[in-house]
Structures are given as structure tokens and as C-alpha cells.
Amino acid sequence: MKNTPINYQIVKQKIEESGVQNIGKASIRELLKVVSQIEKETGEKFIRMEMGVPGLPPAKIGVEAEIEALRKGVASLYPNIEGIPELKAEIVRFVKLFLNIDVDPSGCIPTVGSMLGGFASFMTLGRLYEGKDTTLFIDPGFPVQKQQHHVLGQKYESFDVYNYRGEKLREKLESYLSKGNIVSIIYSNPNNPSWICFTDDELKTIAELADKYNVVVIEDLAYFGMDFRKDYSEPGVPPYQPSVSQYTDNYILLISSSKVFSYAGQRIGMLVVSDKVFNTQSADLRRYFSSDLFGRALIFGSIYALSSGTAHSPQYGLAAILKAVNEGQYKYRKDVLDYAEKAKVMKKYFLDNGFEIVYDTDIDQPIADGFYFTICYPGFSGEELVEELLYYGVSAISLAITGSERLEGLRACVSQVDRNQFADLAFRLKKFKEDHPYNG
User: Fold this and answer.
1) Across residues 356-382, what is the average pLDDT?
2) Which residues neighbour 412 within 8 Å (Cβ) at sequence distance 6 or greater?
3) How many CB atoms within 10 Å of residue 369?
């Protein structure tokens, strides 16, 4: 019997019972289930870092607006599939004030979370041109977006950007785009899981190549304004959230309400399609849709088939949140700064106990403290480390499932860790170090 902070036999048993062949390669949801079972059996609370879910109360403005909308009877009515006018108008204002871009309301579409926005975008773009059928992932990235491609039967290619920052990015991208089969590029900024942030020069490079090769850039802004090294939260005042949309018209933005407004449970996101992409015409779309116009195929083909629109009351909730943000009444950054503060403390605990940060810089700048950070421990692969940490009451996912080539690493999310767990985290990591001495 090994003397670990969490009962060794129970952890081993639950791993075996899970049916997952290699727990180190488990999906986020699979790992979540196993950890929950261990917690229930042992009565011990884990340091849960496996799932990127908000750890803060939802924006109160949205909750109140939803309640009011429900009282007025919107639950009995189907919302317009294109979105309620109030929300579309506030999305237009939001992207102007915080990204400094102009988009027609027709291209500002509420979706059932950014997950659906991405899925609908992949579905439509993959059928835009018969000869262009592949998405290029700039990894590491959100694993479910590749799962969406598998479900759709669509092709993708990917590379880990870690070794291709700065000027190296151009040549690497062009090696893929020059083949002529890429229809879209996708990445997140700030990045899930590494928390790297592309520089303005890198975004310009992506934009220039998107224009050169007629490729649509899908920019996942799930963590909007959460690179806390700068304050992007003042409406209409620079600096603006860095975005490829400032340098090209070939873009689709996925803007989530889940993290920045802690509104994950209502499953509502914003799909922002540039005027140029929205109005792109291609006869090849008629193979699958009733229209040859991209925007109409997206809304009345893909989104209609997937969800027939977005739930009514959350649209009123998000509209109210955006209105307050746009008018400077709700300072969302003050709330989410909590993540950066926790990340700073938690990183120190890991570093003090022999762990290392995997993605540690943005080219020549230290990585920001934020929603995620990445860790490794000498002598362990990422898969091995996922499993071994379970016996110490710490859960995180392997970078291997994110498309990263840094197979020694894990992604750690700070949102679900309470500050009153910091002492437990420190104790468990100290015990881990004692049990796994490393002499280089």
C-alpha cells in the first residue's frame, strides 16, 4: 500500500473501472468523471484543474434581464434564428468599442455557445469551395474542435506553434497554405491551453497570408480581454483586444460569454462574420445549401439544421450585459482578474516543488498569469503525470490531447480551485516532490 494523500487503492480501482485504456490520454469529460468518482468514494476534495469552467458568479445584469424577459413570456416564443435585434445591435457596438472593427448586424449572430458557432462555421466553410476542404489548426488548441471535424467527416492539418513564433510563423504557415487545400485557419488568442498570445506582427502575418491564399481565419476569442498584462476593457479606448480582424476582412470571430462574463450555463456565444465573408458567393455552396451566399448558408442552412437558433431569454441576458459593458457601467475585467491572481500563487507552488512551466514565454516576454498555465515534472511524460497526480489529489489534462508537441506537459486551469485549497495544494505538491526526487 502506497502512502499517498488520496487512498491509493481507491484511485487505482476507479481508474481501472473507468474503462479508459490510458487515463493519461483521457478526454476532459472522461477525466472529470473519474475524479468525481474518487472524490465521492474517498470524501477527499481534489485540486480540480482538468476542466475550463468559470469559477465566478454570473454577471448579475444578465440574470436580471433574463428573469424580466421570462416574466414577459418569451419562453413561449421562438426567437428569430438570426438573433434578437437588441442583441445584434449590442454585438455591433461591442466589436467596434473593444476591437475597433465595423461589422454589419447581419454578420453578428448569437449561437448556442461558441461551440456551436465553431461547428456551424466548419460545416459551412468546408463546403464553400469544392477544391478547398481542409482546416489548419495552429496548435495547441481546444480538443473538441478537432472532434467536431471528425463528426463532420472533414479534414484538418495542424502544427504546434511553440517553435514557430515571430518571423518563423510566416514560412510555416505558407508551407501549408501553398498546397491550395486549406479553406480556413483556426487558433485561440489568448490560447487554450498554453495561454500564449499572438503579437501584432504575428497577427499581421496571418492576415497577409489569409488574403494571399483566400483563406478565412477563425479566431477563437473565448478569453476575450483576459491577457491581463494590458487593460483592454475600456470601451472605445486603445489598446484594443488584439485580433486578426484588425488586419484582414477574411475572418470569423468566436466570442464566448462563458469565461469573461461567467455565463457558461446559458450556452450563448457570439458569431461575428466579416462583411466580406458573409457576402461571399460560391456556386459550390448549392451542393449542400439552398443559397450560394455564405451568410445565408451559414444561418439558414447550418445553424438552422443544428439548433434552429439560440434560446430566447439568454439573448436578452447577453444583450443587457453587453449594453452595460459598452456604456462603461460594467467593468468585467475587475471580476476576472481573480484568475490571474490565483494563477500567480498556484504557479509558485508548482515551481517551488520541482515542476516547470512548459509554455513559459511569448517570444521574449514572460507568459501572462491567467485562466490556464502549463506544467511538467522532470522524468515524467504528460500521460504518466496525469495518472500519478491523481494519487495526490490533483487533476489536470495532458497537453497531448490539445495538439501540442510538448508531450511532457499538462494543462492546469485555475478557475475551480478555491483559495482555501491553497494549503492542500502546497502540501500535496510537497509530498509529490518527496516521493519523486529528481537529481537531474
Assistant:
1) 95
2) 49, 346, 350, 372, 373, 374, 375, 396
3) 21
pLDDT in tens, 169-195: 999 999 999 999 999 999 999 999 999
The DSSP output letter for 434 is H
Please say whether the beta carbons of 149 and 169 come within 8 A: no
pLDDT of 440 reads 56
Name the 3-class secondary structure at 202: helix
Total count of residues recorded for the chain: 440
Residues of each domain in the chain carrying CATH 3.40.640.10: 60-326
pLDDT of residue 138: 98
pLDDT-based confidence at residue 438 (cuts at 50, 70, 90): confident
Residues with Cβ < 8 Å from 350, sequence gap 6 or more?
Answer: 357, 375, 412, 429
Write out the residue limits of the CATH 3.90.1150.100 domain(s) in the chain: 8-56+333-435
Indicate whether 402 pLDDT > 60: yes
State the pairing for strand pair 251-256/216-221. parallel
Whole-angstrom distance, CA of residue 233 vs CA of residue 337: 12
> What contacts 360, CB < 8 A, 6 or more positions away?
366, 367
Q: How far apart are CA 66 and CA 69, in angstroms?
A: 5
Per-residue pLDDT tens over the stretch 91-142 = 999 999 999 999 999 999 999 999 999 999 999 999 999 999 999 999 999 9
What percent of the chain is predicted at pLDDT more than 90?
96
Q: Which residue has the cell 475572418?
A: 251
- Environment class of residue 3 by beta-carbon count within 10 Å: exposed (0-12), middle (13-18) or buried (19+)? exposed
| pLDDT (mean) for 5-16 | 96
Return the C-alpha cell found at 309.
Answer: 437558433
For cell 501553398, what's the residue?
Answer: 178
**pLDDT score recorded for residue 280:** 98
* Fold of the 60-326 domain: Aspartate Aminotransferase; domain 2 (3.40.640)
In this structure, what are the phi and psi dihedrals at residue 394, rounded to the nearest 5 degrees? -130, 130
CA distance 118 to 121: 5
What's the CATH number for 8-56+333-435? Answer: 3.90.1150.100
Q: Residue 310, SS3?
A: coil
Report the run of H or E that residue 374 belongs to, with start and end. strand 372-376
